[in-house]
Amino acid sequence: MKNNSKGARIAIYAGLVLWMLVNLFPVYWMFTFSLKDNPEIFGDNVIGLPRHWLWSNYTRALGTGNMGRYFLNSAIVATATIIITLVVALMATFALTRLIWKRRRTLNKFFMLGLTIPIHASIVPVYVTLSRLHMLNTYWALIIPYSAFSLAMAILVCTGFMNEIPRELDESACIDGCSTWGIFLRVIVPLMKPAVATVGIYTFLQCWNELMFANIFISKSALRTLPVGVQALSGQYTTDWGPIGAALVLATFPTLLLYIFLSKKIQDSFVAGAIKG
Fold first, then answer.
1. CATH of the domain at 186
2. Which of 21, 42, 174, 181 has the most neighbouring CB atoms within 10 Å?
3. Does pTM top 0.90 for this prediction?
């Protein structure tokens, strides 16, 4: 029995290691791809380590390709979108779940309708609205639509988590003299950290990787985001793929790092939702 148990564990660990290698291979390939020249990329060293580590590809991507500026633009848009989405979602969820007022259920259903609308189905009306407000070719042309389309999912996640917080905490804080704002800021918000991490990563992924809005609403080169910059780079360097690989690494690795640092919070939010009821 012990031998069978030990053999089963070895098989499980071997399977997990194999699965880990399969998932890490695209990251490895993209990184090595960014440090090669065309003969290696399309020749006999497709998946091997670079024979000559061309760190100059990153210099060309950041300098000639202007990826540093595009990275900064994406960071500004993503940070502003996350802050707006989190603030509005937490306040709306608190009003919908902890306060009693007429039509709050109707308003909650109205928010949830946002989950049924594809983001790119609204390009024309959003474009017309932004044009009439003279907001095209500004950061707000991306921040406002990204925040609006992230709000429904953010409220859904926050609602499920906030319902798990005992209402007795609100009553105790009220007895101790806390106002409504005090209950929200001192009791509710500190207990919402796992949900905040989940919403933050979801919002970050949505706006960091979005291409269609960024390509249509922004025509100035100085305001382009990373996906649009990578697209322009591929047109500029059609025969030199090393700088394109470097640009892809710059666009992808921040997402991986963000998830690594906040994955524990996301797992906590999933566990909290799984034990509901």
1. 1.10.3720.10
2. 174
3. no
